[in-house]
Design brief:
There is one protein chain. 30% of the residues lie in helices and 15% in strands. It is an alpha/beta fold. The chain has two domains: 111 residues, NAD(P)-binding Rossmann-like Domain (Rossmann fold); 179 residues, 3-Layer(aba) Sandwich (Rossmann fold), CATH 3.40.50. The strands form two sheets. A seven-stranded parallel sheet has the order 8-7-6-9-10-11-12. A five-stranded parallel sheet has the order 2-1-3-4-5, with no helix packed on it. Helix 1 links the parallel strand 1 and strand 2.
Length: 317
């Protein structure tokens, strides 16, 4: 089994060894940059644990590949059609990132409601000023676009603040802690009433730039937009214009169309924008959860059992 990445920050040597020991499988760490130096090893691999996605041209280097395990929940960096043509299973780690992502989302929501940004700016100027419109979260309308595993935990945490929660998803079902669950087709009618709009959609053909000029124009001028899904599910130029023209009050962004966010992006200069470096999924605890999830799948694979979190290659999530 091969594990690859562009960098080495996602899995410590200790956890790599732990994964190998507990799964009973030899796991070799080969960075993407060293693929061509290890073609003989890649040619024998049936399984690949990928941290950075996979390119179409690299599949020929894995003639025996049967299974790809993504270290992340998002899988938009994989060649779905080619994996399907070669009958290769793709699995992800959906669900393990929910605790830390939802902590961070609630953190940025509270930063806006309690005017933490203004206090930070005032501290820089030694300005002891409390002349702001502070708000409570009680009875505020929270719209969660993409009601999957992360949304379930986010709704639970938001409900502790007595927020009114609406979720949008492909298939409408009753969900704990949600006041309403609607079809994603009800985006426009739902976004008009939201005080906080949180996007956690995966990136697919259907969700590409699903939030743009029309959606921002429908939002309240006092609304806050939060994106912890995928950058390309939002029209970033439309978002910048909405912020500049005060169509919305502010935004908290962890993902962007291009990453790292270019230094000339107008978003850097906006006082009403919180920028985090796609760090919502990071935590000390998460790496161990990922190791445990992947270990369980390795054991299932070795015993010819159905794997957890199989990605639908047609739906792309």
């Amino acid at each position: 089994m091969i594990i690859n990445s562009v960098g080495e920050k996602f899995l410590s040597k200790e956890n790599l060894n732990l994964l190998s020991e507990e799964s009973g499988e030899e796991i070799l760490y080969i960075p993407y940059r060293d693929f061509d130096k290890n073609l003989d090893i890649l040619a024998k691999a049936e399984a690949l644990i990928s941290i950075s996605g996979l390119k179409v041209e690299d599949l020929d280097k894995f003639p025996k590949l049967k299974w790809v395990q993504s270290f992340s929940a998002g899988v938009n960096t994989y060649p779905f059609d080619e994996l399907k043509d070669r009958d290769i299973i793709l699995t992800n780690t959906s669900g393990i990132h929910a605790p830390q992502i939802t902590d961070q989302i609630m953190g940025v929501i509270l930063s806006f409601s309690r005017r933490i940004l203004e206090s930070i700016y005032n501290k820089e100027n030694k300005d002891f000023n409390s002349n702001y419109n502070f708000e409570e979260l009680k009875d505020k309308n929270l719209l969660i676009i993409g009601a999957g595993n992360i949304a379930k935990l986010l709704a639970k945490k938001a409900k502790a603040f007595d927020m009114k929660i609406t979720g949008l998803k492909r298939t409408v079902v009753e969900m704990d802690n949600f006041d309403k669950v609607k079809s994603i087709n009800k985006l426009h009618e739902s976004i008009k009433n939201a005080d906080y709009v949180v996007n956690i959609l995966p990136l697919t053909k259907e969700t590409y730039k699903i939030i743009g000029k029309d959606e921002f124009n429908l939002m309240k001028e006092t609304a806050i937009f939060v994106n912890y899904g995928r950058g390309a599910s939002v029209d970033e130029k439309a978002l910048v214009n909405a912020l500049k023209n005060k169509k919305i009050r502010g935004a908290a962004l962890d993902v962007f169309e291009k990453e790292p966010l270019p230094k000339d992006s107008p978003l850097w200069e906006m006082d009403n924008v919180i920028i985090t470096p796609h760090s919502g999924g990071f935590s000390r605890e998460n790496e161990l959860r990922a190791v445990n999830e992947i270990k369980n799948n390795i054991i299932k694979y070795k015993n010819n059992k159905k794997l957890n979190n199989i990605v639908d290659l047609d739906l792309e999530y």
